[in-house]
Write a structure and sequence with these properties.
The chain has about 725 residues and is of the alpha+beta class. Helices cover about 20% and strands about 30% of the residues. The protein has 3 domains: about 300 residues, Beta-galactosidase, Chain A, domain 5 (Distorted Sandwich), CATH 2.70.98; about 230 residues, Alpha-Beta Barrel (TIM Barrel), CATH 3.20.20.70; about 100 residues, Golgi alpha-mannosidase II (Immunoglobulin-like). The chain starts with a helix and ends in an 8-residue tail after the last strand. Bound molecules: (2R,3S,4R,5S)-2-(hydroxymethyl)piperidine-3,4,5-triol.
Amino acid sequence: MTTSVLLALAMPSLACAKVSASADGRQLRLDGGGVTYAMGVDEQGYLQPLYWGPALGADAPLVARHPAELSGFDPAGSVTPQEYAGQGEGLVSEPGLKVAFADGNRDLVLKYRSHSIAGETLTVELSDIRRPLTVTLRYTIDPATGIIARSATVHNGDRRPVRVDQIAAATYTLPAGGDYRLHYLTGRHGAEWSQQEAPVTPALTLLESRRGSTGHGNQPWFALEKQGQSSQTDGPVWFGALAWSGSFRLSVGLDNLGRPRIGGGYNPYDFSWTLKAGESLETPVFYAGFTDHGMGDASRRFHTFQRAHIIPGGDAARLRPVLYNSWEATAFNVTESGQMALAEKAAKIGIERFVVDDGWFGARDDDKAGLGDWSVNRRKFPNGLGPLIGKVKALGMDFGLWVEPEMVNVKSDLYRAHPDWVMNFPDRPRTEGRNQLVLNLARKDVRDHILDVLDRLVSENDIAFLKWDYNRNWTEPGWPGVAIEDQQRLQVQYIRNLYFILSELRRRHPGLEIEGCSGGGGRIDLGMMALTDESWISDNTDPYDRLTIQDGFTQAYAPSAMMAWVTDSPNWANGRETSLDFRFLSAMQGSLGIGANLDHWTEADFASAQRWIAAYKTVRRTVQRGDLYRLISPAPDAATSATFYVSQDRKQAVLFAMLHSSQYRDNGLAIHPQGLAPDTIYRLSVLGGAPLPDGLPAEAQGSFWMAQGLRFKLKGDYKGVAIVFEAKPDHAPSG
Ligand code: DGJ
């Protein structure tokens, strides 16, 4: 066992937080979760980042000193580390805020004015040295994980307007060093969550979306580690994510004194916001954390935080039910009788939620028509949804329905009635993507219409769950009808109205659950996760590709929100053939769903699915709410991968070991679990009932499993096994 694992086990409870200021008010600190974050005001009034790392003693001598100029090329204003810098006074790194005043002045210098502390929240006010423009910075720290939440609000106190051209939620600054490595996530449709690494240098790395939504391309998530010091289990890692579902930008690079700076906020691309007299503009929250225990602990901290503070319901939220979704089985060809037949089969294998995907509404026989008309297609459902919902409920499942409320097909009643409701530039082409246009949700009438339609849909039918899809990017983001200087507010107002609809719908229908989807994982971020119960992370359902996709997703986000389906083989995405067992073992590493065409299953398939689903239910709390340890990463060239989930009380753990392909005779290896209670005796069994692999002892102490590892061989291609660890009752871990 590594030292960091031992340390982690020995660590006392860290669930306390303190937000404090020094007696002279020049130093401000947030302490919590074993982390200290500090800033200080220098003798010229600049607010400087002072420290972010392992907890420091209360008397740590942190002092902000204003630097002298370094050279004629580096005046003091450009080398002063600023907690939140205005674009002015020769700043050569990314600003927090960039504005243009009405008289043409574009020089903004922000200095500390005041601060206040209320519980775990610190508020700091900065203002420009000459103009009545203020920035309010907000900070909180989570006592359990040390995750910091930062956001900013700019306020125009002048009579004349000010144009905001760029605004970050936060800039995080790390100690100078040339050995940082950035981890980030990229992708495209069907290939999301690809893990990337790059050195952090003075050349800025931009992680961004210009698509109007988070997008498949880049995630608003980062992790920085120290090369040669950090690993999965050891060393410092700084990590974070912006809670924003529109065009965003994270910038990562070294400033002119070699300090890494990570900024994040609205993407300045196609953004501007003119603040009239007395107006303010608020940013989303940029969350960030620190650990000294490697990438594994970084993601576990973030998962814990998300489960407690982001995902609706917190730790008390219902475990994800096992769902069936019709999409890969029937595509647009949904009918009352066809769905009823599927529902009967689904109920027999233990499905808890039956979801009808695309195709149930309007003139929706393919993707060319119907979007926008959210009334039941009476040819497919002659008596409305009532009979199907009644049947699904009588079978003991709840009912879910697919919607894509932000979109419209030109061939729809909605578009015919309101062609002006789509984003567009007058007299310019309206580019279609998947034959659809994007409604301008920034408009209040569009926002109210969507809310009203969905509210009625959910009120008039017994719907427990909506799968909320979103299947294209923005192309001509015009908002005719508002003043020219306000048109680019669209980038922000659209997303705010999306959040409004989702939260208002949830408020009016407290039992309603929602899945976020965008052609798979095209709009997943902490903003959407705060308003949805689960996320559809990729349309790629191939169980082998999924291992890397799921590994990427869980670097940033909690497995409890991660939906994974068992679908048909060969897989539609890549033609790969795999056994039903392998498909289950892959999908059970998240929140399990079935998307296969049950009309094509054999009796043996049904029997095995029934067995797997029953087995999954015995470990799902551990998978969904436990701590995830990546024991062997499913890198594209690795033969084997292993993930390990340990329940919060450490009484149960489950190991998923997956083999891509055997080579030669010997692929045996030792898999070393982590996170078990060392003194507790765990009894092992194979999930699903098969005998334990040859040579594996049936029980031993946690310390034995962690030090000695599990030594066994998997043979063949696309094989896997899930091994459950149950604490023996008289050895249950204490605390
Ligand atoms: C894209 C989603 O990712 C799929 O799961 C499915 O819902 C289709 N849209 C339906 O059009």
